[in-house]
Design goal:
elongated, 24% strand, four-stranded antiparallel β-sheet, binds zinc ion, 2 domains, Aminopeptidase, Alpha-Beta Plaits, eight-stranded mixed β-sheet
């Protein structure tokens, strides 16, 4: 299924194959210097330097540590390609020679171990590989490339911050935006795509269940918030099982419970951390309304007065569902099928995880987006795990896929794919 050696996709592969040792070295540098969300200072400077070296015009400091790099190549569309830059508070246990030993302060001032356990180091390296290959192939495309390094993907806040800081108005307004994520569930170099819904929306809530504390020897003088919190947790579980149609996706998780400090003292309050996932906005609205109703109703049944009902705060780290543009995605998928063949390209199901790349599409006017997955194989373990050690050859496949997509979107007139 390989096309003749002279076509741009094959030339890109040759370039990336030749560059692979240098890219693998760059990957090890990114991997050994992981930084937490919003603190990607070394990472963004390193990425900016590599993009500048590749001939791009770089603007740093967008929305904090965000980076934008432009390569203008005549009249034509503007294509944005995004890589995310942040790492996770995970202690690396891969035992690799370039394993991270980094510790840093998290947002709450606690020192934590840090690791690139989600493959964002691979994404940045693939972005640099694609940037170099496309800079070497300027006779095969027309338009403008906008390569970006996005901070804070793990806290799903970096895309919004780059947009609020004028990424589109100050740098360039894209006609299309693409991004990828490594996927252990797909074999190395295989591509998963989907038109429409690709990942879930999510919201996080803090709930403070208030009671009236006192001595454990006299519960009759108290309103025990520990018992009340336990009742609320169980009652919340019936929202999804009894109020949402089985054909709709909804997840409600109480992921943290904190309350009390002593065996014989009933506390005044218990705090819960709640997370929801959904594909449809109506489901989100229903879950939020039902959480409020169940919390209030259960507290009232426990005898709490109206001014001591649970306090619920929706946190800013919410993210809408991500929908791929059907036209752009269909076009990119067709280019993938043509270059990589049907054995390596398949349609996938949407995931219940969340991702803030979709925010880049929610501009006015909207920007068509295409987010796809590239296999890094099961043998390297799973995302967010301390033993995640993907096959680095995924870098070549990921960079090549980005180039194939870019060559298609930026194909000059008369060569439209
Ligand atoms: Zn992640
Ligand atoms: Zn990730």
């Amino acid at each position: 299924m390989m096309k003749p050696r002279s076509d741009p996709a094959s030339r890109a592969y040759e370039i990336l194959d030749r560059e692979f040792p240098a890219l693998e070295q760059l990957y090890r540098e990114f991997h050994a210097h992981p930084e937490l969300s919003g603190q990607e200072h070394w990472t963004s400077a390193h990425l900016a330097g590599k993009l500048r070296d590749a001939g791009y015009e770089v603007t740093p400091g967008i929305g904090g540590t965000g980076v934008a790099a432009l390569l203008r190549n005549g009249e034509g569309p503007v294509l944005m390609i995004r890589a995310d830059m942040d790492a996770l508070p995970v202690k690396e246990e891969t035992g690799l020679p370039w394993q991270s030993r980094v510790r840093m302060m998290d947002a709450r001032g606690k020192e934590v171990d840090v690791m690139h356990a989600c493959g964002h180091d691979l994404h940045m390296t693939a972005l640099v590989g694609a940037a170099r290959a496309l800079a070497a192939l300027t006779s095969s495309w027309k338009g403008t490339l906008l390569m970006i390094g996005q901070p804070s993907e793990e806290s799903v806040s970096g895309a919004a911050r780059m947009m609020a800081d004028g990424l589109y108005t100050r740098i360039a307004w894209p006609d299309a935006a693409i991004a990828l994520h490594v996927a252990p569930e797909l074999p190395v170099g295989h591509i998963g795509y989907r038109e429409g819904m690709i990942s879930a929306g999510g919201e996080s809530l803090d709930m403070v269940v208030r009671g009236i504390g006192g001595h454990a020897a006299h519960p009759e003088t108290t309103r025990d918030p520990v018992v009340l919190a336990a009742q609320i947790i169980l009652a919340l579980q019936t929202i999804v099982s009894r109020e949402v149609a089985a054909t709709s996706m909804a997840i409600l998780t109480v992921a943290a419970v904190h309350g009390g400090s002593k065996h014989n003292a009933i506390p005044d309050e218990v705090s819960l951390q709640v997370n929801i996932r959904y594909f449809e906005k109506e489901i989100r609205d229903h879950l939020l309304t039902a959480i409020r109703r169940v919390a209030d109703g259960t507290a009232r049944a426990a005898g709490m007065p109206p001014d001591r009902l649970p306090q619920i705060t929706i946190l800013p780290e919410s993210v809408p569902p991500m929908k791929n543009d059907p036209v752009l995605t269909g076009r990119v998928a067709a280019a993938f099928l043509q270059v990589f063949g049907p054995d390596r390209v398949r349609k996938i199901e949407p995931v219940t995880g969340s991702e803030d790349f979709g925010i880049f599409g929610m501009a006015d006017p909207p920007v068509p987006i295409c987010y796809f997955r590239i296999g890094c194989g099961e043998s390297g373990g799973y995302l967010h795990s301390s033993s995640f050690a993907p096959d680095p050859s995924v870098i070549r496949g990921a960079a090549h896929a980005l180039v194939v997509a870019a060559l298609d979107v930026l194909s000059p007139p008369g060569q439209a794919g």
